[in-house]
Amino acid sequence: NIAITICDPEGNVLDMNQHSADVNSHGHKIIGNNLMDCHPEPAKTKLKGLLEHQQLNAYTIEKTLADGSKVKKLIYQTPWYESGEISGLVEFSLEIPEDMPHYVRG
């Protein structure tokens, strides 16, 4: 149950798995479109900065679904590289438990 979306250095969606298509409103139709057109500010500026500076962005969100239930997700956006050159971003979006345990190991 991990949604995976991949874009090129300009933000054009290259590919997505079926789970990503299922959770994104336009499904596979967004392949070939630019992520900047799918996001409002400040997300648009954030995505541009991640691509320009080759940065990692990780955070959690909570969404209310159409049936009124809530889901908590981890969003993990990271650059991907080919032959040492940035090739774009990959985003992993996965549901996580509301009270997920955290362990410190040494």
Main β sheet profile = 5 strands, antiparallel
Order of helices and strands: EEHHEEE
Which spans of ≥5 residues are poorly predicted at pLDDT below 50? none
Radius of gyration equals 15 Å
* Oligomeric state of the chains in view: single chain
Q: Overall pLDDT, averaged?
A: 95
Structure class = alpha+beta
Number of strands: 5
Helix-residue proportion: 10-25%
Share in β-strands? 35-45%
User: How are strands sequenced across the largest beta sheet?
Assistant: 2-1-5-4-3
**What is the count of DSSP helices, taking H or I runs of 4+ residues?**
2
Distance between the termini: 29 Å
Overall geometry comes to: globular
Overview of this protein structure:
By secondary structure, the protein is of the alpha+beta class. It has 2 helices and 5 strands. It has helices at 18-23, 43-53, and strands spanning 2-7, 13-16, 57-64, 70-82, 85-96. A 5-stranded antiparallel beta sheet has the order 2-1-5-4-3. β3 (57-64) and β4 form a beta hairpin. The model has no long low-confidence stretch (mean pLDDT 95).
Topology:
Blueprint: E1 2-7, E2 13-16, H1 18-23, H2 43-53, E3 57-64, E4 70-82, E5 85-96
Antiparallel strand pairs: 1-2, 1-5, 3-4, 4-5
TL;DR of this structure?
The protein is an alpha+beta fold and 106 residues long. It has 2 helices and 5 strands, in the order ββααβββ.
List keywords for this structure.
single chain, 106 residues, alpha+beta, 5-stranded antiparallel β-sheet, 2 helices, 5 strands, globular
